[in-house]
Task: structure prediction
Amino acid sequence: MEFEKLTEIIADVLNVDKDEITLETTFVDDLEADSLDVFQIIMGIEEIFDIDLGSEEAQGLVSVGDAVEQIKKVIG
Result:
């Protein structure tokens, strides 16, 4: 569930095909996201999942899998 919602956010922000996104996909290297793109993705995560990611957690998000794990950790 988290992965599917996250791929929708990423696809919307970066204008990429959801089918190209895997857990191993990295935001910067694979998706060529800049800092503003990553910020928009984090804001989307916080809005959709109704959570607050601290700056330390947000800085640790390198791959889609990292984001999924962080979401699961915060929502319990």
User: Anything to note?
Assistant: The chain has a mean pLDDT of 94.
